[in-house]
Input
Amino acid sequence: MLDLIIKALACYRVSRFVSIEEGPFAIFESLREKLDSPAVPRWLGWLARGVGCPYCISVWVGLALEPRRPIHALAISAGACLIYRVFDKFLPWNE
Output
């Protein structure tokens, strides 16, 4: 149980880092801008939207943390989403 909580916290942090924050040397901000540019084919629009969404990213991060147990990956993602909702509602970060 503690393992899933720790992974949910890690998933939250990585998901928020990639989808909202700049990152070191503005790498994630640059990635989001490049994916949202007109140079990216229209059929890849889902990728640009997904990278900018902490809920979407949390599914992929959860799968990276638990690749052999998809149900645990979804539980990790759900925990990260819950943490995200609580932190953004009660502890608003400057974006």
Q: What stands out?
A: Residues 2-90 form one domain. The two ends are 32 Å apart (CA to CA).
